[in-house]
Amino acid sequence: MKATLDLFFFGVYPYIALTVFFVGSLLRFEREQYTWKSDSSQLLRRGSLRWGSNLFHIGIISLFFTHLVGLLTPPAVYHAFGVTTEFKQMMAIVVGAVLGVVCLIGLLLLIHRRWAEIRLAHNSNLSDWVTLLWILMVLVMGIATIFTSVHHTDGAVMVRLGDWAQRIVTFRSGAVDALEGVPGVYRLHMVLGMTLFVIFPFTRLVHVWSGFASVAYLTRAWQIVRPR
After folding, report:
1. How far does CA 220 lie from the centroid of its chain?
2. N or C: lower Cβ tally within 10 Å for the chain?
3. What is the spatial distance between Cα 98 and Cα 121, in angstroms, rounded to a whole number?
4. Residue 119: in which H helix or E strand, if any?
């Protein structure tokens, strides 16, 4: 039974999540562009929005890219720069803890703001709460992994997780076997994180694509404006 669940959640589910993530986002952009927005609630009440939003976005964007680089960088690459596995593990613990706490504080401020302000509560739909609470679960489980990581600073588990991610994105076999011996707290964090990609196209999270697309403004041609 465990082998079957491992095969599904860590061998098949990643591809299901990525397919829903990309195809679902494309279909929503093509068919429901009027819903492609962040649904900002600033007009209803500012309150702790500035602090909550800034802390949350700084934390979650930084966590995304540190996870991306950390998991997809083969050991041979950082070893070539003189970075040991043990040092990388300690950096992951420290940076992950700091960014995790920053993101958690921001998220809790946003949740409290939406819950405590009656106008915001009445204008919040199910997808808003699912998004916030699911990110909260992913974040809490991610922070929980830190308490496990400090007990194996040799970085062996980190290498296994990286091997799994690299095998998944390169469509190589053996991804499930790479997780042999990885504690359950990491596995739960991974499943919750992959599920976040599944719900992504159906929530306000799609505005993240627009955020990345805005980088194109840096390279677009100059607009010439002449006085009348």
Report:
1. 29
2. C
3. 30
4. helix 118-122
